[in-house]
Automatic annotation (TrEMBL), chain A:
It holds the Pfam family AAA. Its main location: nucleus. GO terms for cellular component: nucleus. The lineage of its organism: Eukaryota, Metazoa, Ecdysozoa, Arthropoda, Hexapoda. PANTHER family: P-LOOP CONTAINING NUCLEOSIDE TRIPHOSPHATE HYDROLASES SUPERFAMILY PROTEIN. Residues 63-76, 94-114 have a biased composition (Low complexity). Residues 77-93 have a biased composition (Polar residues). SUPFAM superfamilies: P-loop containing nucleoside triphosphate hydrolases. Belongs to the activator 1 small subunits family. CTF18 subfamily. This is AAA+ ATPase domain-containing protein. SMART domains: AAA. It is found in: Nucleus. Residues 61-120, 828-854 are annotated as: Disordered. Coiled coil: none annotated.
UniProtKB/TrEMBL annotation, chain B:
The lineage of its organism: Eukaryota, Metazoa, Ecdysozoa, Arthropoda, Hexapoda. GO terms for biological process: DNA repair; DNA strand elongation involved in DNA replication. It comes from Henosepilachna vigintioctopunctata. InterPro entries: DNA_pol3_clamp-load_cplx_C (IPR008921), DNA_Rep/Repair_Clamp_Loader (IPR050238), P-loop_NTPase (IPR027417). It is found in: Nucleus. Keywords: DNA replication, Nucleus. SUPFAM superfamilies: P-loop containing nucleoside triphosphate hydrolases (SSF52540), post-AAA+ oligomerization domain-like (SSF48019). Subunit of the RFC complex, an heteropentameric complex consisting of a large subunit RFC1 and four small subunits RFC2, RFC3, RFC4 and RFC5; the RFC complex interacts with PCNA. Forms an heterotetrameric complex with RFC2, RFC4 and RFC5; this complex has ATPase activity but is not stimulated by PCNA. The heterotetramer of subunits RFC2, RFC3, RFC4 and RFC5 interacts with RAD17. Interacts with CNTD1; this interaction facilitates crossover formation. Transmembrane segments: none annotated. This is Replication factor C subunit 3. One of its GO terms (cellular component) is DNA replication factor C complex. One of its GO terms (molecular function) is DNA binding. Pfam families: DNA_pol3_delta2, RCF1-5-like_lid, RFC_C. The keyword Nucleus applies.
Length: 923, 356
């Protein structure tokens, strides 16, 4: 057991890389995020020691150097902070010196850090130098130049530090001198107090230990003299001599002015914020700006961030931190986090899915998440949303611009990331293009050889509300779908209360929770409601929120939830915020299971859904499964009458195009609800029966029409669709399948033969035939061609069985029917066939005469009078008919001098010999 | 050339008709003047409407009408939808079933009649000056189409005559009824059917037992076509040796409906209703017209239940069928009717139980 880590360790292992992910990019955020804290630390220093102004100027010197060293200054700041308490214990004079030495310390530290820094952390240049993969190598040189300047900078810095050290050493000497003066003052003090009775004028003093001291009394003049001397001494040894007072004053002044300016700055800040508040919506004002401020579900955030990090290899040429997921069947967690398997890289080093598709209801912060995550991972966001032109052309250019170029104006030169917001509204052509673009086939024709330049190298995030819009079908398959779960109302309400506090609004957490629930966790609408209440400027309590109709969207529930409402009776429970707005005067107790309340609820739900017809169909197909009370069918009858009523009403509305009547449709749902609902949880399935029946009917009607089309005209005039279905086909299917023995046609008795011929004729007349088809088991079967059997047969009926012909018989019939059909096609041309026959018979009769004219030496080549007999049709190996006549003619006609045109037979195949053959000759 | 019996022995002349001979001669005399009004011929299925129409046409134009060809005509609706409709025509007449194209039947009627009416017969000697348009299934025409018909009927009367053919008059608007000479072709009686079967059998040289013929005549519901088809099927089944008490194969849909009626009366519950619905869907998806289902279901119900409910069930059937015609989804109305019947039956049974 000890081999396996415990659950905590396992969790840490699982998320170790993610933690790294989270921590790693903070260096981007730091200059922005940590700025205020830096300020405060510096401020505290200044309060403690007036002398630190000097330090400050020093630090200003530092900060003016470069971005790089500024970061180091940060750390030095924190160092000085650590020393701060010591400074306070020391007296004023020493502290300033102390500070200086300390400053020197930090300087040395920072200098050593300066040496180490570039190796440990990526500098901005290093980071974004990677983007050069997009540009060409020309920039490499400039990069080198940059590096050299950096080196020089560091040298300069070292020089400066050395100077500072010298300065400090000088100060140390001063300090020593001053200490000596202190000692001399103490010695002087000893001369003025004694235990014995002194010689000079004195005052006796007794202390607690009953010891007696004699303190010397000076004259007033002497005292003044002495004080002046001491002060002079001190001033002499002071760091700045007589300048001290002035410096002190100046320092005070600077401090005061700084404090003032800060105060005013703060004031203006507040004013500005308030101004902004007036201008900006709160939604923008309190938009999360950092990853950790995100409100949305943590796993969702992480999954998206993880996906985005996979691009690092292509975009930043960094090895992405993915833990190799070992397929371990024992490890349950692995299976649980199956999503990790989706996050693989393909051969180009790109993630398996090139696009992330965020989907979820509005107001959960999808767009915010995308933006924040993109920034967090170091991208420059390019957003294309519904407000932009999204025609195919624009879409293409913007997509190509975003993914294959980079901004020149932007200082930081971060790589781009495209966010397609509200993509479910985009024209499907654009979405198709996107899909093609992703799969890499959008490159045009010839470019494909050097395709590597053209593949997508930048991540794309698409955002939609409904992932199942038909236009997105293609995209769904190639994208990494992140479904957005609703924000937890606890988190949301916490954030709301924070915002309220910042806005100086008085409210409590319970109210905010209700608000969050009421708006179905829609952050945006919550904020708008709060903003609205801000205008009222008073304490917001629960009833305010409950009564407010604002923030309640006309939420369209799903089909199933509407059906659920219809089929179930809600148990009475204390409902906090369902106090109906319209019924303010009524008691809340009225809102329970009373028919009135239920009716109101059903009406509301159904009306807000709107698609009455589909709803009704769902109710119709599900009600039989419901477990509702009632032993008699009276209620069912009533409900079914309402079905009839809605059907008629619908038909009337459709016919007359008079939609004003559709207001009466929802009331049927109330009846059905009263009738079919129960306290049990209804199991509802999607209504498909009607659709299936309609499809079957369509198929059947299609085969009937097929049959009708092929009917002989003389039959066709006497039948129509209805007659075929009702009368003809049921008997016809029996008539055409008589009890044949499965033997060869030759073995049939005369009677059977007649019957067989009859069947074939009928099938020809009705345009039926058997067609060989492979069934689902892979066995060949003969099926009727317009397949009318499914129309006639009722598999449920056990009383009558259809006799089906054997495979062999069907095959026989099929063959005969084919022949018969060809014959019948030939029939209109009967006369012309006869004519040609006569001609043919005439033709050979001439040949004997011709024989006489042929020269003697050729005579033996002539084959003797073969053609007088009835033409025998011979078939070759493949069953094709060999045209003997033609062959013979070609063989013999070479030397035939009688004819104007003749040709010589050459060995091999020739297309030159052609002859018209009528079908009748072949049959 | 061998056909099904019903086609093979179809009378081609008024003189060869097997029944309704007086009516036949009446029709014959109608054409004597060489002219006749628009006709609306109606009657149940298998009574011989089409046979008489063809006889009439032959009487008018001679054997020319027997040279038939089928064509597919194409039309374009005002909404630019291409429609195809199959027609059967001779030199003298054209037959079309406009309801094949559903709601676009109006376009078909307007186009065809205009086409026909605008071309006059060139050779007037010995020929009639008009062509005939035969419209079948007039009862399935939409109201629009029927209204389109009434004006064209009058306008083009010099060049064309209409023969309308339908099973019921109730769905034909009165305006059309009044413009036509309505002729009803009643279904043949069972004796007449038996006679026809026997005659056919003798022509086929088969010994057909009279009992069997009578049985078939009854089962065919006085539908001659069905009767002939059934007897032919019987002959095929029996392999030549027909016996009087032979099993006669009825159409399966009919058996299915009867089975459904049996389910209804067997037990009255939601579960049964579910079974019934499955059966009804089976029937509907095979293209059995819902009116037929209604009628036969009612037949089945009335045959098997004799609790004095006949009047009530009949009334309900009428109501629901009427509603069904007004509506769109047949299954709702059929099921409502079934539920109502179950309900009524259940109530009566309960009462009987409480009486005991």
């Amino acid at each position: 057991m000890s081999d396996y880590p415990n659950s905590d360790e396992e969790f840490e292992l699982q998320y170790a890389d993610e933690l790294e992910l989270l921590n790693d990019p903070e260096d981007f955020d730091e200059p922005v995020a940590k700025l205020p804290t830096k300020c405060t630390s510096r401020k505290s220093l200044e309060f403690g020691t007036p002398k630190s102004t000097y330090f400050k100027t020093q630090s200003d010197l530092f900060s003016s150097q470069s971005q790089n060293s500024e970061q180091n200054l940060n750390t030095s700041d924190s160092f000085s902070n650590d020393f701060h308490p010591i400074n306070e214990t020391n007296n004023a004079e020493t502290s300033s010196i102390q500070n200086n030495t300390q400053n020197q310390n930090t300087a040395t530290i920072s200098s050593t850090q300066n040496d180490q820094e570039p190796t440990r952390k990526r500098t901005i240049e290093e980071l974004f130098g990677d983007i050069d993969d997009l540009l060409f190598q020309g920039e490499r040189k400039t990069k080198k130049a940059k590096a050299s300047t950096k080196y020089e900078e560091q040298l300069e810095m070292i020089d400066k530090i050395l100077e500072l050290r010298k300065l400090n050493q000088e100060k140390d000497i001063l300090l020593l001198r001053r200490n000596t003066t202190h000692i001399s003052a103490d010695e002087k003090m000893k001369l003025n107090i004694s235990r014995r009775v002194p010689t000079y004028p004195f005052i006796a003093v007794t202390n607690y230990d009953k010891e007696r001291f004699y303190v010397r009394c000076h004259s007033d003049d002497y005292e003044k003299e002495d004080i002046a001397r001491v002060v002079k001494d001190i001033n002499l040894v002071g760091t700045m001599g007589d300048m001290f007072k002035e410096t002190w004053k100046k320092a005070q002044q600077i401090l005061n002015s700084q404090l003032d300016s800060e105060k005013t700055a703060e004031e203006t800040d507040i004013e500005e914020v308030e101004m902004e508040e007036d201008q900006n919506l709160w939604v923008d004002l309190y938009k999360p700006k950092r990853y950790l401020e995100l409100l949305s579900d943590e796993t969702t955030n992480r999954v998206l961030l993880k996906w985005l990090k996979l691009w690092d290899k292509v975009v930043f040429h960094r090895r992405p931190k993915i833990k190799k997921v070992e397929v371990d069947p024992k490890n349950k967690l692995n299976n649980q986090f199956n999503i990790e398997n989706q996050l693989r890289l393909d051969e180009d080093g790109r993630p398996h899915f090139k696009v992330a598709l965020l989907c979820g209801p509005p107001g959960l912060g999808k767009t915010t998440l995308a933006h924040v995550v993109a920034k967090h991972a170091g991208y420059n966001v390019i957003e294309i949303n519904a407000s932009d032109d999204r025609s195919l052309e624009f879409f293409r250019t913007s997509l190509e611009n975003a993914t294959q170029m980079r901004s020149v104006v932007d200082q930081q030169q971060r790589p781009n990331l495209v966010i397609f917001d509200e993509i479910d509204g985009a024209p499907s052509a654009s979405v198709e293009f996107l899909v093609k673009f992703i799969s890499g086939s959008a490159s045009k024709g010839k470019k494909k050889e050097k395709d590597n330049a053209n593949i997508l190298k930048r991540p794309i995030i698409c955002i939609c509300n409904d992932a199942y819009v038909p236009a997105l079908r293609g995209l769904r398959q190639v994208s990494f779908i992140v479904n957005f779960p609703p924000t937890s109302s606890a988190r949301l309400s916490e954030r709301l209360i924070e915002i309220a506090r910042r806005q100086h609004m008085k409210t409590d957490i319970g109210t905010m929770q209700v608000l969050a629930e009421k708006s179905k966790n829609d952050i945006r609408s919550c904020l708008s409601v709060l903003h609205f209440f801000k205008a009222k400027d008073k304490y917001i309590n629960l009833t305010d929120i409950l009564k407010a109709s604002v923030g309640q969207k006309d939420m369209q529930n799903g089909l199933f939830s509407v059906w659920n409402d219809i089929f179930s009776i809600e148990r009475t429970k204390v409902k906090r915020f369902s106090v109906p707005v319209a019924a303010e005067g009524e008691d809340v107790e009225d809102y329970d299971m009373s028919y009135k309340a239920r009716m109101r609820k059903i009406l509301k739900v159904v009306q807000s859904f709107g698609d009455y017809e589909r709803l009704a169909q769902g109710v119709f197909e599900n009600y039989q499964e419901m477990q509702f009370k009632g032993s008699t069918l009276d209620g069912t009858c009533l409900a079914l009458d309402w079905f009839c009523y809605t059907d008629r009403l619908n038909q009337y509305i459709m016919e007359q195009q008079n939609y004003s009547f559709s207001v009466y449709l929802p009331y049927a749902f109330v009846v059905w609800h009263y009738q079919f609902s129960s306290l049990n949880w209804p199991k509802i399935k999607f209504p498909t029966e009607a659709f299936e029946a309609r499809q079957k009917l369509k198929n059947n009607i299609a085969s009937i029409k097929e049959l009708e089309k092929g009917l002989q005209p003389k039959i066709k005039i006497f039948v129509n669709q209805k007659i075929l279905i009702l009368d003809v086909l049921p008997s016809l299917t029996r008539i055409i399948s008589p009890p044949f023995r499965p033997v060869n046609l030759h073995l049939f008795t005369a009677k059977e033969k007649a019957m067989f011929a009859n069947v074939v004729d009928i099938m020809i007349d009705y345009n039926l035939n058997y067609v060989q088809e492979k069934n689902s088991d892979g066995v060949y079967e003969f099926k009727l061609d317009p397949d009318v059997f499914p129309i006639v047969e009722y598999p449920k009926l056990t009383t009558q069985n259809f006799r089906s012909l054997s495979y062999f018989n069907k095959q026989l019939i099929a063959r005969e029917v084919e022949i018969g059909k060809i014959k019948s096609l030939q029939r209109p041309n009967d006369q012309s066939v006869d004519a040609t026959k006569k001609k043919k018979q005439a033709a050979p009769s001439i040949s004997p005469e011709n024989d006489k004219n042929i020269p003697n030496h050729l005579k033996k080549l002539q084959v003797k009078s073969l053609k007088n007999a009835t033409p025998v049709v011979t078939k070759d190996f493949f069953g094709r008919i060999i045209d003997k006549e033609a062959n013979e003619a070609s063989a013999s006609s070479g030397p035939n001098i009688d004819h104007d045109i003749w040709f010589k037979y050459k060995e091999g195949y020739t297309n030159a010999v052609k002859k018209k053959i009528k079908m009748s000759q072949l049959l | 050339m061998s056909l099904l019996w019903c086609d093979k022995y179809r009378p081609k002349d008024f003189s060869k008709l097997d029944f309704h001979k007086e009516q036949g001669s009446g029709l014959k005399s109608l054409t004597k003047d060489g002219d006749f009004p628009h006709l609306l011929i109606y009657g149940p299925m298998g009574a011989g409407k089409k046979t008489r129409i063809m006889c009439l046409l032959k009487e008018l134009y001679g054997t020319g009408v027997e040279r038939l060809r089928s064509e597919v005509m194409t039309f374009t609706t005002p909404s630019n939808k291409k429609l195809e409709i199959g027609t059967v025509s001779s030199n003298h007449h054209i037959e079309v079933n406009p309801s094949d194209v559903g709601i676009y039947d109006r376009v078909v009627i307007m186009n065809i009649i205009k086409n026909v009416a605008q071309t006059q017969q060139l050779d007037l000697s010995g020929q009639k000056s008009f062509k005939v348009v035969v419209l079948t299934d007039v009862d399935a025409l939409t109201k629009d189409a029927q209204h389109a018909l009434r004006r064209t009927m009058e306008k083009y009367i010099t060049n064309c005559r209409l023969i309308l053919c339908s099973t019921t008059m109730s769905r034909v608007i009165p305006a059309i009824k009044s413009r036509c000479l309505c002729i009803r072709i009643p279904a043949p009686t069972t004796e007449q059917i038996v006679q026809v079967i026997e005659k056919t059998a003798s022509l086929e040289d088969i010994n057909f037992p009279r009992n069997l013929a009578e049985k078939i005549a009854v089962l065919s519901e006085r539908n001659l076509r069905r009767a002939l088809l059934m007897s032919e099927a019987c002959k095929v089944e029996a392999e030549g040796k027909l016996t009087p008490n032979q099993n006669v194969a009825e159409p399966d849909w009919l058996l299915m409906i009867r089975e459904t009626a049996r389910i209804i009366l067997n037990e009255q519950s939601i579960q049964q209703l579910k079974k019934v619905r499955e059966n009804l869907y089976e029937l509907i998806c095979r293209g059995i017209p819902p009116e037929i289902i209604f009628k036969n279901l009612l037949d089945g119900l009335l045959k098997q239940c004799d609790l004095g409910l006949t009047a009530e069930i009949l009334e309900n059937a009428a109501t629901y069928e009427h509603q069904m015609v007004q509506g769109n989804k047949e299954i709702f109305h059929l099921e409502a009717f079934v539920a109502k019947c179950m309900c009524l039956y259940q109530n009566v049974l309960e009462e009987m139980k409480s009486d005991f």
